[in-house]
Each structure stands twice: as C-alpha cells, then as structure tokens.
TrEMBL record:
GO cellular component annotations of the record: plasma membrane
InterPro entries cross-referenced by the UniProt entry: Brdyknn_rcpt, CCR1-9-like, GPCR_Rhodpsn, GPCR_Rhodpsn_7TM
Compartmental location: Cell membrane
Chief localization: membrane
UniProt cross-references to Pfam families, sorted A to Z: 7tm_1
Keyword annotations: Cell membrane, Disulfide bond, G-protein coupled receptor, Glycoprotein, Membrane, Receptor, Signal, Transducer, Transmembrane, Transmembrane helix
MF terms in GO: bradykinin receptor activity
Tagged with keyword Transmembrane helix: yes
Limits of the G-protein coupled receptors family 1 profile domain: 55-305
Topological category with respect to the lipid bilayer: Multi-pass membrane protein
TM regions (residue ranges): 41-63, 75-94, 114-134, 155-175, 202-222, 243-261, 288-308
Name of the protein in question: G-protein coupled receptors family 1 profile domain-containing protein
Length: 346
C-alpha cells in the first residue's frame, strides 16, 4: 500500500507539472511569465544556494566530527551531502545568468564549469542513491552471505568510482559548451547526429541503469520488511537507516525526474522531432521551472536527515554533548590554573 501511494503521488505530481494549462497555453497568454521568471528565479536560487550550503556543511561536520566510525550507509550519505554542497557552490552563477536574461557574461570557462558542476551533482547523487539501495538490499535481504562486501573500505572505493563516473558523464559539457552571442551558454555540437547519440548514452548511463538498480533493490527491501514486520527487534534495528534512505530516494525522484525528462524532450525538439509551437513554448518554460525543483533537493536532503534519520539526530546530540564536555574541561582547567596561580602569589 505504501508503494502504491508513493507511485500515485509521483504520478499526480508529474501530470501537474507537464499538463498544467498555465504552462501549455498560448504564448500571448503567458507573455508576462518571462518577466516574472527574471524577477523570481534569481532570489529563489540565491536562497537555495545559501540554505543548501549551510545545511550541507552542517551535515558534513556532524559526520566528520563525530567520534564513532562511519557505517557503510553513512559513508554514502556523507558523499551525497558533499555532492549537494558542490552543487550549491555553482548556483550563484545560475542566478546571475537568469538576472542577465540568459546573456552569459562570465566567460567560456565559467560556462563549462557551471554545467559540469550541475551535471556532476545529478549523476553522482543518483549513483550514491543506487549504492545505498544496494547496501540496504544486502543488509536486509542477504544479511550474512554478503557481509564481507559491506565494509567501509569497499564503500570508499565505490564512492571514488562514482565521482570519477560523474565527471566522465559530464565531459560533453566540458567539451561542447560554448558562449554564443544572443544564445548564452549553450551546447554547440559540431554535427547534427552528435546530440542524439551523446544525450541518449548519457541518459542510459546516468538515469536508466541506476533507476533500474534502485527500483529492483527497493522492491526487494520492501518485501523483506513486510515479511519481517512481526519481528520487533529486526524492525527497530533494520528500518531506522532504511526509512531515511527511502525518504531521500523518493525526494530525489520527485525533484529530478521532471528535469531528466525535459532534457530528453529538448533533444527531440532540437532534432525537429517535436515541432508543435505550443508544446515547444511549454517545454521552454519547463526548462526553467524543473531545474528550480531539482536544486531544491540539495536543501531537502539535510532536512530529511534531521526529520527522518534517528541515527543522525542521535549523532547531533552526541556531538553537542562532546563539545559541552570539552568546554567544561577547558573551563575547569582554566579555573584550576587561575586558582593555583593566585595561591602561589599570595
């Protein structure tokens, strides 16, 4: 029932985003939308950038300063927070670009760096979620047979591979992004067949493959949890991390799936497969709205860690307790030293 509800909510959200009359009505009826976009998006992106930076730094500090060793899932979530932080550092460039009405004024190198940073975040995030899904699958479905694979060492190696893969998938932006007068920072492919082949390969490796992995693992996890629901001990010990990961996964899908779909539709538009002017106008609007939804995920993840993650909340409390103990120890040391110094002088 929970899976059906989540699917239904996601279906309704996507239908609203894609089929809303406000987005797909005639251009002359939406002429004022672009002016509002130039007014609203820059401050929105600036707020998301500031909040995302502060919240993800907080998450990383909690994970890094806590004395207890990382679990495998925490290593993946820590890298996910690092990817979100990496994204928020590039968001101010987007705000400036929209404020300038998409006339890129920051040079070719910043153009390439901005899109590499944005796409690396998306690609690395989805593969980190694939890794935590696989980890939860082994922990709940095969808790004993694959225990040797679920080690912090293997988790760190996997994260390194994901960062490298994310950069490799972003290479087209590094090579083909260019600044064109009156067009801004765009993909400038050298031949007409390149966009379809490149974007199709990227879509398969950055979205289809990890989504298949995540879906299969999630279905198996939910089945395992339903079978073990009668065992109170298993439920309490195993579902704390799993509930957090499923929440983060759902948030990512809701925030990023519309963006990935518009990217594919935009490739069809560029290759004259989609030619309806009303649809194209709506697609152009979606290309500005859906990235705003996608980057909101970088703020949403740290909030989910606090609201859903019981282990994370406990880490925060323990970290503050450690800091208070250090302050008390330092204060006591200073007080004792002051007392001894005063005693010797008198």
């Amino acid at each position: 029932p929970q899976t059906s509800l989540l699917i239904a909510l996601q279906f309704l959200l996507l239908n609203w985003l894609f089929l809303s009359p406000a987005l797909f009505s005639q251009p002359d009826e939406n002429a004022t939308f672009l002016s509002w976009m130039f007014t609203l998006i820059p401050p929105y992106i600036s707020i998301i950038s500031a909040l995302g930076f502060v919240l993800n730094v907080f998450v990383l500090l909690v994970f890094c300063l806590h004395k207890k060793p990382y679990t495998v899932a925490e290593i993946y979530l820590c890298n996910l927070a690092a990817a979100d932080l990496f994204l928020t550092c590039f968001l101010p460039l987007w705000a400036v670009n929209v404020y300038n009405k998409f006339q890129w004024t920051l040079g070719k190198q910043f153009c390439k760096a901005f899109y590499v940073g944005i796409f690396m975040n998306a690609y690395c995030s989805i593969y980190f979620l694939a890794l935590v899904s696989v980890d939860r699958y082994f922990a709940l479905v095969h808790p004993l047979s694959h225990e040797t694979l679920r080690t912090p060492f293997h988790a760190r190696i996997s994260c390194l591979v994901v960062w490298i893969l994310g950069f490799l998938l972003s290479i087209p932006s590094l090579i083909y992004r260019d600044v064109k007068r009156s067009h801004g920072c765009i993909l400038n492919y050298q031949n007409s067949t390149a966009p379809v082949s490149i974007e199709s390969n990227i879509f398969i490796f950055s979205f289809i493959i990890p989504i298949i992995i995540i879906s299969l693992c999630t279905i198996s996890i939910l089945r395992a949890l339903s079978k073990r629901s009668k065992s109170v001990n298993v439920k309490k010990s195993k579902t704390k991390t799993t509930s957090l990961i499923l929440s983060v996964l759902l948030a990512f899908l809701i925030c990023w799936i519309p963006y990935f779909l518009t990217q594919i539709l935009d490739v069809f538009r560029e290759n004259k497969i989609l030619t309806d002017p009303v649809f194209i106008y709506g697609l152009e609007i979606c290309k500005q709205i859906f990235p705003c939804l996608a980057v909101f995920n970088s703020v949403l993840n740290p909030c989910l860690y606090v609201l859903v993650g019981k282990r994370f909340r406990r880490k925060v409390k323990e970290l503050f307790s450690q800091q208070n103990e250090k302050r008390s120890a330092i204060t006591g040391f200073v007080s004792t030293r002051t007392y001894l110094t005063t005693s010797v002088r008198t």
